[in-house]
Amino acid sequence: MNKKILRYLPRYLALIAWAVVTIGPFLWLLSTSLKGPGENLFAQPPQLLPAEPTLENFRRVLQSQPMFSYLFNSLQVALLAVACNLCFASLAGYALARIEFRAKPLVFAALLASMMLPFQLLMIPVYQLALSLGLRNTLVGLVLPHACTAFGIFLMRQAFDAIPRALEEAAVMEGVGRFRIWAFVCLPLVRPQLATLAVFTFIAAWGDFLWPLILNDDPARFTLPLGVNRLAGLFSLDWRLVAAGAVFSLIPVLIVFAFSQKFFIEGALKGAVKQ
């Protein structure tokens, strides 16, 4: 028993150290949001636990900014982005996995190549497209970059490719059309991968700052990242209030991940592996 413990001890110590490094910034953010005005945020040595925890910072943030309005805007953008990406990415992924056409290898190669390009390189043409379509200061414009992603198409293509073709062949023999096969035969079998894609899309849309910043100049349509950014200038960069706003914006993401964790882990393990 002792030999087994010694064998796995370095591995568990490394995992614990990595967990501390990962969760440390969040704990420091939470601690900063609970500290009162009399506490020194940059004291040496650093003090993780607040001397007198208070929710005053959250009250001041909610009174000074329409945070619930920003929350509603972010929810609209994130949920619509998730719905669009799940629909369009699964349709495109199914076509790449099951439909044979001449340019299929070229399309798949272009898809993989596009995953290596940062959004900043595509931002100008996407911005011009949004302006030409009259999408400035609109919900659809904010959703546009997240409506269908290369990663989503790739993930769903790998998921559909792992489904036995015999299931679809049996449906074809029964006279079922291609669209109904996708909707009623294949989609229920890739629910873990759909959950994984939903979590990734929700987090990306929820935390997006650059795109709403350049497309949206109407404060009534600001999302939470833009609202938290306003706190820095409104209170001359009071880190307590900025931290409180950041914690407020993180709560929905933690809730979504907590409820989808089971499907997320299963989909992450299966979605990118061809079986």
Helix content: over 70%
Q: What sequence of helices (H) and strands (E) makes up the elements?
A: HHHHHHHHHHHHH
Largest sheet: none
* Count of spatially separate domains: 2
- Please, what is the average pLDDT? 86
CATH superfamily of the largest domain: MetI-like
Q: What does the overall shape look like? A: globular
* CATH class identity of the largest domain: Mainly Alpha
In the CATH hierarchy, the architecture of the largest domain is Orthogonal Bundle
Rounded to an integer in angstroms, the radius of gyration calculated over CA atoms is: 23 Å
Q: Give a count of the beta strands, DSSP E runs of length 2 or more.
A: 0
Percentage of β-strand residues: under 5%
CATH names the topology of the largest domain as MetI-like fold
Q: Segments where pLDDT lies below 50 for 5+ residues?
A: 271-275
Task: Describe the model.
It comes from Roseateles asaccharophilus. It holds the Pfam family BPD_transp_1. The structure is a single chain. The chain has 13 helices and no strands. It is an all-alpha fold and 275 residues long. Helix 3 crosses helix 10, helix 4 packs across helix 7 and helix 8 packs across helix 9. It is globular. The C terminus is likely disordered.
